[in-house]
Amino acid sequence: MTKKTVGIAQSLDNGHYPKAVFSSDEEAPEVIGTVKGPGETSNQYVFITSNTQAVRVGDFVYYEVQDTQSQTLKILGKIRQVQLLDHIPDRIFADTEIDPSTIVALVGFTHPNPEIYAVTVEVIGYFHRAMGFINPRRPPDPGAKVFLASNRLLKSILNKRDETAVGGAHLGSLLLRDEGAVPVVLDVKEMVSTHLAILAGTGSGKSYTAGVLIEELMLPKNRAAVLIFDPHGEYHTLAEMQSHPKFLGEDGYRPKVKVLSPQEIKIRVSSLNFFDILTLLPETTDRQKSFLEKAFRKVTQFNPLRWTIRDLIDTVNEEDSAEDGSQGSSAAALEWKLEQIDRSPYFSNVEHLAPKDLFEPGQVTILQMHEISQEEQQVIAAAILRQANYARINTHKGKIQPGDENYLPYPVFILLEEAHRFAPAHEPSRCKQVLRTILSEGRKFGLGVGLITQRPGKLDSDILSQCMSQFLMRIVNPSDQENLRHSVEAAGRDLLQELPALSKGQVIVSGVCVNTPVLCKVRQRYTQHGGETLDILGLWQNHFQPHRRQDRVAQSAPLRPRSQPQVVEGLSID
Description:
The protein is built from 17 helices and 22 strands. It is α/β, with parallel strands linked by helices and 574 residues long. The chain folds into 4 domains: 3-157, no CATH class; 168-176 and 179-265 and 353-522, Rossmann fold (3-Layer(aba) Sandwich); 269-342, no CATH class; 536-573, no CATH class. Helix 7 crosses helix 8 and helix 7 (286-302) crosses helix 9 (328-342). It is globular, with a radius of gyration of 33 Å.
C-alpha cells in the first residue's frame, strides 16, 4: 500500500472523505457524500451523507463527469430533500437524565455523526458562459463523490453580471452562505425589459426590496429612467439618493428624484378614451351610456387632441336638441355627472403630465396617489401607461420628432405598487388591457414594467405570467401559494415550499435575471425605508405624556386669590 493510499484509508477510518486534488490558488472542494443512485425523476439523484452541517435544502452541490474531450465538468445541483435513514435507537433519547453521546460511546460507535441521511438533488447542469446551464443528461454513477459547491464557484456561475459591472444590480447575498460571501447580482437589462413581479405577504419586505432595486437602477453604472406609482406614499425617501455619496458619478452625475404629490398630478382630459370617462362617472344607465358614446365620438372626431369636458357637455346638449328633447333627462343627468369630472383636481383641460415630464435617464419620478380614489387611480395609470407605450413605439419607429411631448428616445421602466388594484384577477379595470399590451409587446420597444403585490391570487394571472423575473417573499395564504405554483414555474416547487418559512428580507429570485433560482438575503438600503410600520405604542405614550404634565402643573400651581370686583358705570362685575 502506497503512502497516498494509506492516507486515504486513514481518513476513511476516521469517518471523513478525502479531499479532491486542487490547485494552490483554488478553494479545496469539500466532499460531503457518495451517490447512491437515481431519484424519483430522471432529473434527480440521491446521495448518502452523515455531514449534517453541509446539507441544507436549497444549497448547491455538484458531481464531476468527463466530456468527450476529457474535460472535467462540474454538474451543479440543488438539494431538494433530506431524509433520515439510520440513527441512534429512539430508546436512548427517552431518558432525559442520560446524555445520548455517552451511550453511543459505550457501545463503541466512534463516528462523530451517527445519523445517516439520504439527500435528493435536482440537477441544474454544467455552466457554459455563452449558453448558461446545460443539463448533460448523464446521471452520476453510484459511488461517485458529491461536492459542496464553493463560494467562489457559485459567485462565478449564479450571476449573469459582475457586482461592479454596468448592467448589474446587487440585490444581496446567497442566503445559505455567510453574509456577503456570494453576492446575488441581477441582470438589469433582462430584469427590466422582460418585466418583473415582487410577490410577498404583508410585512415581508416587498417595498424594501423594491427600494433596493430602484437604488441599483439609479447608481452611476445604470442611470435608468424610472416611474413609480405609489398608492401609499412609501417611496419619497428615495430622494436621499440625490445627496448620498454612493450615487455620485465620476462625471458629476447625481440621480434626480421627482416626487409629485396628489395635487401635482394632472391628466389632460383629451388623453382619456370613452371607457376612461365612463369609469369616472357615477353609475349610468344603458341609455345614458349610448347617448354619451355618440357625443364622445363626435367631439373627438372634430377635435381629437384638445377637446375639453365642456366641449363634451355642449355636444351632449346639441345631440339632445337635435332629437327634439327626447333624451332630455339623460342629457341633464350626463351634464351633472360630467361636471364632476370638470371639477376634479386631477383632470385638467390644459395641464398634463406628458412622457417628457415623467421620464429622463438618471431620474426617478414618484406619483404619490394616497389621496386619490381607486377609480381615479386606475384612470390616471391607464392614461399614463397608454401614452408611454404610444411614445416609445412611435419614437422607435421614427414617427415622433424632438419637441413633441411624446418624444421618448430611451427605454423606460414603470413600477406599480399594489398591482392587484390596477390589474385585478376577476374585476374590470382600466389598466388591465393596456398592461397586457405592454407586457406582451413592450420588450421590443424598451418599455418595462414591475408589479408589486401582497395578494398574488388577486392579480390577473395572464399579466403575472408575462413577468419573466420573479421575487417571491414570505407568503402564508394557501390560495396565494397555490396560485404561484401555477403562475411562477421558474422558481421550482422545492423553493416554493419554503415561502411560509422565509423571514423578513429573504427572497426567492427566479427567472431571466439570474442563471438559476436562488435564495437571497436582501442587502441593506442606502436610503431610509418609507414604509415602516407605525410605532403604535410610542405614539400612544407621546400623546399621553403632555396631558399628564399639564395635569401635574395644574395640581401643583398655587391657588389664585379672588380678585376684587370691578365697578363699571354703576355695575358690579365679579
